Amino acid sequence: MSLLKSYYNLCKPNVVYMMLITALVGMLLAQEELPSLYTIFISLLGIALCSGSAAAINQVIDRNADASMNRTDQRPLPQGDLTPFHATIFATIIGSLGALILYVFVNTLTMYLTIASLIGYAFIYTVYLKRATPQNIVIGGLAGAAPPLLGWTSITNSIDAYALLLVLIIFIWTPPHFWALAIYRKDEYAKESIPMLPVTHGVAFTKLQIVLYTIILYLVSLLPYIVLMSGVIYLFSALILSSLFLYYSIKLYFADGDDYAMKTFTFSIYYIFLIFIALLADHFIL
């Protein structure tokens, strides 16, 4: 059982669950009527397996850095619960299986986009961007923003402007979300020579960037209402949630020390979850 748990944790389940929620919202928003439960299940299964594969590859590549950071030193590889070889084989199997499921039972567009996201996160971000530029999370965030598009294409087999708007929301949300955590963990990133923004440009500059990105997110979050994708339920939800996020980011900017960084990081998780739930509620109630 402990071995199964180690493989399970290798897939970063909490991250994958959030990705699946946004993918599910993309599916449910893609058409007026509800998709079949079979289509939802098989699509989410394929996306989940590929996402878990990307997470596992990320941990294989970053195993040495993970071992020296308090946030990650309890992961299966630093703990010695799994070997890099076995983790790599596992990642290859579930990634291939996920791609095959999408190809056979969903559509090739979704398969290609999912594979592109896997490569973007597991290799382009982890191998190159993460250690190449303090803008790593901005550029690499595109892979993590893809799930609602994957959900949408699994239903429609086409890329729609509304689906790209969902991607944009997550893309703009990612930097302030992650930079808040990076502020709290800046010493650990500095120890591993990972050029996160607080390490290269300082905490004060990073706090300012969080505020600026949150303002942009505030504006972007209103676009679904402006382009008539959603109605007043979503509008009021977006106004309240984005105002709260901006409040947290401003409090972080003026706070002494880094303690408010984790409060901002935690709220950002609730934010992205609730704003997508609001999209869903608006779609089916109005």
Structure report:
The relative contact order is 0.11. The protein starts with a helix and ends with a helix. It has 286 residues and is an all-alpha fold. α3 (37-61) runs antiparallel to α8 and α9 (161-184) runs antiparallel to α15. It is flat, with a radius of gyration of 19 Å. The chain has 2 domains: 1-157, Tetracycline Repressor, domain 2; 160-286. The protein has 15 helices and no strands. Helices cover 81% and strands 0% of the residues. It has helices at residues 2-10, 13-29, 37-61, 63-67, 84-106, 108-132, 136-144, 147-156, 161-184, 186-191, 197-201, 203-221, 223-226, 232-254, 259-285.
Topology (SSEs and partners):
Elements: H1 2-10, H2 13-29, H3 37-61, H4 63-67, H5 84-106, H6 108-132, H7 136-144, H8 147-156, H9 161-184, H10 186-191, H11 197-201, H12 203-221, H13 223-226, H14 232-254, H15 259-285
Helix pairs in contact: 2-3, 2-8, 2-15, 3-5, 3-6, 3-8, 5-6, 6-7, 6-8, 7-9, 8-9, 9-12, 9-15, 12-14, 14-15
